[in-house]
Design goal:
The structure holds two protein chains of two kinds. By secondary structure, chain A is α/β, with parallel strands linked by helices. Chain A has a six-stranded mixed sheet, sandwiched between helices. A four-stranded antiparallel sheet of chain A has the order 2-1-4-5, with helices on one face. In chain A, a hairpin with a 2-residue loop joins strand 1 and strand 2. By secondary structure, chain B is mainly alpha-helical. The chains are: A alpha/beta, B mainly alpha. The interface between A and B is medium-sized, with 22 and 17 residues. The complex binds adenosine-5'-triphosphate and magnesium ion (MG). Magnesium ion (MG) binds next to helix 1 of chain A.
């Protein structure tokens, strides 16, 4: 199947410092691709590029075979991709208002049924009227995920979706992620520090170091028989940064 | 001391007895201030949001101009508007419908907007700048168009925008010099509370001056009270 994303020679620098240099990365429809790597490797930056929120300095990004000009990405395309950020950025207002936000942007004003479903699914029903800024870190993270899923994106970019969660909620989120991937063939890019989570959820795993993709392989190969010695050391937990 | 206490009593009497002269002045003030605030908001909020949120060449320059505008001496604005609108001025002779005549309520409104709009722009600019960049990215990621993102950011910054409007209104209500110059303080048409206080004090009519002063203070207090209420609600 043709890839959803094709990246070639993509670079990105901030104030003269090169942060990202990706020679090649393909992401396939319906897969869960985990991106792992140490802090500062450029994982969040990669997600911002995939969500068309920032433009690469050079190189090309194709989305469903179309070259993307980041200055002017058609709204229909932008609205098929959404990110749940590393720090859940909730809007002021209630939990319900946050869940309705994306729907309202799309001119859909009758989302109460979907909201209720989402609240139920994420164990947030009791908090529907709570002000978003009063939520705990884990609750906020679940609201952020629910707010993205309610939009039924065809590509979901997740930046450390379980970082603030206790094991029970982390497991619930993992099963939600697996569930929507299976039910809707949602393409998911999952950035995680947790290599066990990558192993549990991902179809393929990519290792990112210093802005480069060192190796991309199907999950079993990545963990059991990686090509690159740095991957081997990373999955053994031997890499010291 | 006696003048003050009897002035206050007389002033309150005039106010509550519905004294036509006093209420006529209050009416003109309300009309000028309301229109000037509305125009300053319509102009200042979008401009402030765009200046605070978008990057383009020349932005710093425009920001510096806005900050300068925030500190403009009102009499200088009055002078400039006077020179523009007078019959042998720059705009006056053009005789266009949108160019007000000197010594009219419209001319006063224009001067007030020139004074208040930079305040609204400047405060709005800094208010939207305080909204976290992360939240703005998240809004875009959830599928907002540029305009929707601007609206959502303004909504997140609404407290600061409210402060911007109060600041603008405060400067409008307290303005004397510019409205005196371009309005002319004409009895029954362009006399507003501040210019009336000035005149009546000079004439020794402290009752009317104090009555107007009390109304002005009361209005300022009520506006700030309701603003505080609104801010509290958002919390
Ligand atoms: N807007 C920016 N301006 C300047 N530098 C930036 C910016 N965004 C990211 N960086 C830098 O780019 C590098 C990569 O950041 P990024 O957030 O992508 O890393 P990450 O892999 O997501 O790290 P973590 O696992 O800690 O979240 C970091 O060194 C960071 O300081
Ligand atoms: Mg990150």
């Amino acid at each position: 199947m043709a890839p959803v994303y094709q990246l070639a020679n993509v670079t990105k620098a901030y104030s003269g410092r090169q942060i990202l240099h990706i020679n090649q990365l393909d992401i396939y429809p319906g897969e869960i691709l985990a991106v792992v790597g140490p802090s500062g490797a450029g994982k969040s930056t990669l997600l911002r590029l995939l969500n068309f929120l920032e433009a690469p300095d050079s190189g090309s990004i194709y989305f469903n075979q179309q070259p993307i000009n980041h200055q002017n990405v058609p709204l229909e395309i932008r609205r098929t991709v959404t990110t749940v950020f590393q720090n859940p950025a909730l809007l002021s207002g209630s939990v319900t208002a946050n869940l309705l936000f994306g729907l309202r942007l799309r001119g859909q004003n009758d989302g109460q049924k979907e909201v209720d479903e989402m609240l139920e699914r994420f164990g947030l029903a009791a908090l529907r009227r709570s002000p978003a800024h009063a939520l705990s870190g884990g609750e906020a993270q679940r609201v952020a995920l629910a707010r993205a899923l309610i939009l039924k994106p065809s590509v979901l970019l997740l930046d450390e979706p379980t970082a603030n969660l206790d094991p029970y909620n982390a497991e619930m989120i993992e099963s939600v992620i697996r569930g929507i991937n299976q039910a809707h063939q949602t393409t998911i890019v999952l950035v995680t520090h947790n290599i066990f989570q990558a192993r549990r959820l991902a179809d393929r795993v990519a290792l990112m170091l210093n802005g480069e993709i060192i190796e991309t392989a199907d999950t079993q190969t990545f963990f059991e028989n990686p090509r690159d010695s740095r991957t081997r050391r990373f999955v053994r937990g031997e890499m010291v940064w | 001391m006696e003048t003050i206490s009897s002035g206050i009593i007389q002033g309150l009497k005039l106010f509550f007895s519905g004294d036509p002269a006093l209420w006529q002045i209050i009416g003109v003030s309300a009309q000028v201030s309301g229109a000037a605030l509305l125009l300053s908001a319509l102009l200042g909020i979008p401009l402030g949001a765009v200046l605070g949120l978008t990057r383009f060449p020349g932005r710093r320059m425009i920001q510096a101009l806005v900050y300068t505008g925030m500190g403009l001496p009102p009499v200088v604005v009055g002078l400039a508007v006077y020179l523009l609108l007078s019959n042998n001025g720059l705009l006056g002779p053009l005789q266009q419908a949108w160019i007000p005549k000197l010594f009219t309520v419209e001319a006063m409104i224009d001067a007030q907007v020139i004074i208040a709009a930079p305040l609204v722009i400047g405060y709005t600019m800094s208010a939207v700048g305080e909204v976290s960049p992360n939240l703005r990215l998240q809004v875009r990621s959830l599928g907002a168009t540029r305009l929707q993102a601007l609206g959502a950011t303004l909504w997140e910054a609404r407290r600061g925008v409210l402060v911007a409007l109060i600041g603008g209104l405060g400067s409008i209500l307290s303005e004397v010099g510019a409205v005196m110059m371009v309005g002319g303080n004409i009895d029954g048409s362009t006399r507003v509370m501040t210019t009336a206080i000035l005149l009546e004090t000079r004439r020794g009519n402290f009752e009317l001056a104090i009555g107007l002063g009390i109304v002005l203070l009361g209005m300022a207090f009520l506006i700030n009270l309701s603003a505080a209420q609104l801010q509290g609600k958002g919390h």
